Amino acid sequence: MFKQKGKKKKFKIWIIIIGLLLILLLGILAAVVKFEGEKPVMEIEPVPGYVGADTTITGKAIDRKSGIRKLQVVLRQNDRDELLLEQEYLSDAGEEKSPRHQVPFSIQIDTRQLKIDDGPASMQISAWDHSWRHRFEGNRADIEADFFIDTRPPDIEVLSTSHNIYQGGSGLVIYRLSEVCDISGVYVGDDFFPGRSGYYPDDDLYLAFIALASHHGRDTQMHVHAKDLAGNTSRRGFYYRVLGRSFKTDTINISDAFLNMKLSEFYAMDGWPADADMVAQFLFVNKTLREKNNAAILGLGPKSEPRIYWQNMFGRLPNSAQQAGFADHRLYRYNGEIIDEATHLGIDLASVQQAPVPAANAGRVVIADYIGIYGNTVIIDHGFGLFSLYSHLSKTMVASGDMVSKDDIIGHTGTSGWAGGDHLHFSMIVNHVFVNPVEWWDASWIKHNITDKLDSVASQQE
Ligand SMILES: [Zn+2]
């Protein structure tokens, strides 16, 4: 009896001890969880160095363990703190009643509403988690970003005068910007021609060579556009006159002999319709390939150097006759039916077979390669987005990167590409638009529309 009682007592003590140990263990476990020391992490989109009138910065705060408890964003300028965001999150506030391990945020900096001045400022983003550390404040993480607030749009002053531009023709606009810009240039309708500095010692002066594509109307609107580093934009008009030009329409008869001779040159091209009839193959070359080749050629603008390599007028293939003009509208007739149309955006010049082709002016070769319908082609960068193109060559004598002087022989005429007989297809390009080469062959046009303008602005700066 007595013995049994003692056993029971011992048993009770053990239960209490085990119970206490269990509570202790749970307590330690809870403490380890609750007092976790892992800081939140913040992922934010890069804060721009310049912030405009209305900028939004987005990001998220992440805390893998106890979850985000609080977010705070403070904008600081001089000695003034402006609270942009303060938000608390309950530990079970998430959609699935669990801690908010990820809290996305979006901070709007509306300088006018906040009455913040232009000038340097900084932003501090802080996040706390639900840990019991730091007297239940939680682990804290901060991000600080310095930036410059700029709400003033750039000033644009157009320095060049009398902008007379023909349909299919070129022009030049010279302007000054009041501050460094992300992008600036001239809109001709929807076509944007970027301006670049580097011609004048004063880096605030920009040249934009412009073009009015041959298919654009006489009512095309033009203006200078600039966007500064903070995203503020300005536009400025200038006096211009659009002059009409009429272009020829030409019907070209496509013979089976031509198709038999030429189509085989393209059989290895991507997407070649091997099983289709000759008309479908013709359309593949004349439409699909033409578009693809033009896109490659007209994408060279950004490769142009901000230097004027050329001087005086551009040269024309010596002792040659013009076979087709710029912007001729071509109708293609096969078996008495019009099967396609296209605009001829260059001038065809024929001399003797395999005639040597001189560079029209000085520049840097950017392409010496086979380009589909253009065949063997050389493209020369003359600077500030102006290029000359020579195609259907039988052979090229230069390589990409070569510097050439005016009249250097760059290749020989031929029939490579979409050409029936030996000739040179010559084009001029302004940034991303084929322009009428006749203007660039004309010393008087160059003087009135380009060089006089360059000189006149130079003399204004002295
Ligand atoms: Zn041609």
Outline the structure in words.
- The structure is a single chain.
- By secondary structure, this protein is an alpha+beta fold.
- It folds into three domains: 41-149, Immunoglobulin-like (Sandwich), CATH 2.60.40.10; 156-245 and 451-460, Immunoglobulins (Immunoglobulin-like), CATH 2.60.40.10; 249-435, Distorted Sandwich (Glucose Permease (Domain IIA)), CATH 2.70.70.10.
- It contains seven helices and 31 strands.
- Strands 19, 22, 24, 25, 26, 28, 30 and 31 form an eight-stranded antiparallel beta sheet that branches. Strands 2-8-7-4-5 form a five-stranded mixed beta sheet, with no helix packed on it. The chain has a four-stranded antiparallel beta sheet with strand order 13-12-15-16, with no helix packed on it.
- β20 and β21 form a beta hairpin.
- The protein starts with a helix and ends with a helix.
- The mean pLDDT is 92.
- The structure holds zinc ion.
